[in-house]
Structure formats: C-alpha cells, structure tokens
Amino acid sequence: MCLGIPGQILHIKDAANQLAVVSVAGVKREVNIACLTGPQQSPGDCVGSWVLVHVGFAMARINEQEAAEMLIALSELDELDEAATDGEPTDA
User: Fold this and answer.
1) pLDDT digit string (tens) for 31-88?
2) Do residues 8 and 48 touch, judged by C-beta distance below 8 A?
3) Are 66 and 40 in contact (CB under 8 A)?
4) What are the Cα distances from residue 41, in Å, to 16, 20, 46?
5) For residues 83 and 35, what is the distance between their CA atoms, to the nearest angstrom?
6) pTM of the predicted model, to two decimals?
7) Fewer CB near the last or first residue (10 Å), C or N of the chain?
8) Residues linked to residue 54 through DSSP beta bridges, in sequence order
9) How far apart are CA 62 and CA 8, in angstroms?
10) Between β-strands 27-32 and 5-14, what pairing exists: parallel, antiparallel or unpaired?
11) CA–CA distance, 76 with 30 (Å, rounded to integer)
C-alpha cells in the first residue's frame, strides 16, 4: 500500500533540480517537486502549496482542508494502533 503524507512547501532549495523543503507534521524534509512543475508552473509557484509526499516526491497538490483532515486521520490511526498493541510491535 502506498501512502502519501500531507506537507506544505516552505521554500525552494534548488530550482534547477526541482528540490524544495516541505514541512511534514512539523518536520522539514527535502522533496522533489518535478511532478508539480511544468511549462505553466515554475518551482517558485509551488511555495505555500499543500502536497502529498511519497518516498521523497511531492506527488500531487491538495487543499489545506484536505491536508488537515488527512493529518487528523493519520494521527487517529497511530493512536488506534498503539491502543491495539499496548505499545508492543506487531509481527505483521
């Protein structure tokens, strides 16, 4: 299963290589934004956008409300997982 995590693009680190710094739940990560740019969309146009990040790539833009809802859902899943296993790792 592939999972995209919501993050917000803070700034462009390297426009030539399409690298940006994204805040994912408060943690800053370097991600590739090549999937978001093109002839009508420069790297600089991405700053401030909410995106889904998967394995170091910003895969798609989402709106702020979608990002907030996804972060809440991911947080709840983590809590459910901890409650179900009493903090012990599973053999899944």
Assistant:
1) 999 999 999 999 999 999 999 999 999 999 999 999 999 888 888 887 545 544 555 4
2) yes
3) no
4) 14, 14, 8
5) 37
6) 0.79
7) N
8) 57
9) 10
10) unpaired
11) 26
Q: Are the C-beta atoms of residues 24 and 53 closer than 8 Å to each other?
A: yes
Angle, alpha carbons 13-18-23 (nearest 5°): 55
**Look-up: residue for tokens 């947080």?**
75
- According to the 3-state scheme, what is the secondary structure of the chain? CCCCEEEEEEEEEECCCCEEEEEECCEEEEEECCCCCECCECHHHHCCCEEEEECCEEEEEECHHHHHHHHHHHHHHHHHHHHHHCCCCCCC
The domain limits of the chain are 5-85
